[in-house]
Amino acid sequence: MNPRARLATSDGLRPGEVALGVEPTPAPANLYFIGRIFTPWATRGECPRRGDLAGPLCRVEIAEPWTEALFGIEAFERLQLLYWMHLARRDLVLQNPRRGDEVHGTFALRSPVRPNPIASSIVALERVEGSSLFVRGLDCVDGTPLIDVKPEHCPRA
Amino acid sequence: MNPRARLATSDGLRPGEVALGVEPTPAPANLYFIGRIFTPWATRGECPRRGDLAGPLCRVEIAEPWTEALFGIEAFERLQLLYWMHLARRDLVLQNPRRGDEVHGTFALRSPVRPNPIASSIVALERVEGSSLFVRGLDCVDGTPLIDVKPEHCPRA
User: Fold this and answer.
1) How confident is the model at residue A69 (pLDDT cuts 50, 70, 90)?
2) Interval B24-48 mean pLDDT
3) Is B113 an 8 Å CB contact of chain A?
4) What ipTM goes with this model?
5) Is the dihedral of CA B146, B148, B152, B157 positive or negative?
6) What is the pTM (predicted TM-score) of this model?
């Protein structure tokens, strides 16, 4: 471990947290934002720690040219949404989520702070109106970019 | 709908399938590949349709500079993996997965073919050896790029 590299990105760290001191290589793959999520939470501080299937109704707006891909979506009660947590830093490998003595590796947490800040939530689909999905179970800030919509898939065992 | 645009990308389509006729705008966000997945399946044709928690053992190799982010991962029996299905086309909005009369919107399917070909699987973690996770439950081709590792999160209700 190079202590100088750590110092270079030590801004805003809590006790025990470790940030990368290097810039990782971007993947030979680009994302498309396929829509946007509208929630009652204007800031990260207002967001719930975890989505609740009985929580407030949120609107997921699919953008062109993707709207036709919603065909048949109303058959599903539960959907999995992937979205891009655009406000999160991406360089922490060790995190101290409660600002205490417990430090966790980023991959042992569901924190928005991660190399690829992609959130995955299971939501309850209430209704579809044109290119809008009305769902419950989200946890993200108003305006979050959407990456994917899939039928739910959780193991039964 | 512009029929000319559809013709331009009609190669390889099954009956009823529809591809975008336009190039979507890439998102102002880049991915990092954080590792690679090694499975017994050398081609897409050999892959199971769906992962099985009692299926063959696969190795998930985390790359530098991310390995330190595994700290504490061995506490979890189940993990969620996100990975990039690098062999899939990304322009289909309607698909005909069984080559029959049934056409589905891409967002009503878990097909690898989607705007952002990100797969999400819940896997059983058998053991950790250095920067390798040995897991069961995967469905992807050998060498698939890894995007994220999270503790499992499925609703109980």
Assistant:
1) very high
2) 93
3) no
4) 0.90
5) negative
6) 0.90
Whole-angstrom Cα distance, residue B37 to residue B44? 14
With cut-offs at 50, 70 and 90, classify the pLDDT of residue B10. Answer: low
In B, which residues are within 8 Å of A69 by CB distance? 92-94, 105-108, 114-115
SS3 A3: helix
Distance from CA of A57 to the nearest CA of B (A): 17
CB contact under 8 A, B122 and A154: yes
B-chain residues within 8 Å CB-CB of A105? 68-73
- Closest Cα in chain B, distance from residue A71 (Å): 4
**H or E element in which residue B16 lies:** none
* Contact status, residue B103 vs residue A71, Cβ threshold 8 Å: yes
Strand-pair partners of B144: B37
Radius of gyration in angstroms for the set of CA atoms belonging to chain B, rounded to a whole number: 18
- What is the spatial distance between Cα A112 and Cα A35, in angstroms, rounded to a whole number? 19
Contacts with B, A 37-56, CB within 8 Å: 53
Rounded CA-CA distance B39/B58 in Å is: 5
